[in-house]
Amino acid sequence: MRLLAEENRPIRNRGGSLTRLMAAIFMIGANLGPARPLPARAADNSAKPTITEEDRTKAGEIFSERCATCHGADGRGNGPAAANLKPRPIDFHNQSWQKSVTDDTMAKAIIFGGRAVGKSGQMAPNPDLEDEPAIVAALVEKIRKWAR
Ligand code: HEC
User: Fold this and answer.
1) In terms of CB atoms within 10 Å, which end of the chain has fewer, N or C?
2) pLDDT tens-place string over residues 52-87
3) What is the per-residue pLDDT for 27?
4) Per-residue confidence at 25, pLDDT binned at 50, 70, 90?
């Protein structure tokens, strides 16, 4: 309430503008500071969503329908469409690739496509999954299981 009252004061109040200026400088400073958590979105929300069995089932269906054609049903990167790709999809069973990539990077690749993470643009985006963090997490989980 007090803040609201201050906000409504006439501009000629130099003290008020100075406060606002200081606040603006503070905010610019804060933005230049160490990386801060971004607003919660599927791709960059590091707070892990809870994955239900339903999410796992849905992720399994999505993988068969959309991903297996390139990545192969067992994630070896040998789906029917893989032969024509350059570079070929990675083998998800490859341990050093598994170690090189974070869950967030995978989620970003799945939602925004390969180009968003500096990989092949042939890795297509799945914009409909942007609002489905649990399904994306279930896809990542599925891919992680191939590491073992
Ligand atoms: C048209 C073929 C194609 C389809 C469909 C496809 N991908 Fe990919 N994907 C690729 C290729 C090619 C790469 C890797 C290219 C590279 O290493 O530069 C890739 C890379 C990835 C990566 C690794 C990103 C990284 O940072 O290393 C993940 C994770 C992935 N795909 C998941 C999926 C999932 C999940 C689906 C289905 C929703 C899917 N992909 C559908 C071709 C495809």
Assistant:
1) N
2) 999 999 999 999 999 999 999 999 999 999 999 999
3) 53
4) very low
Distance between CA 47 and CA 135 in Å, rounded?
Answer: 14
Give the C-alpha separation, 2 to 139, whole Å.
Answer: 48
Each residue of 78-112: b (16+ CB within 10 Å) or e?
bbeebeeeeeebbbbbeeeebeebeeebbbbbbbb
- Residue of 55, 61, 70, 128 to mutate, ligand 1, most atoms within 8 A of C-beta: 70
Calculate the CA 99 to chain-centre distance.
18
Contact 123, 113 (CB under 8 A): yes
Q: Is the peptide bond before 87 cis (omega within 30 degrees of 0)?
A: yes
Name 122's Cβ contacts closer than 8 Å, sequence gap at least 6. 70, 85, 114
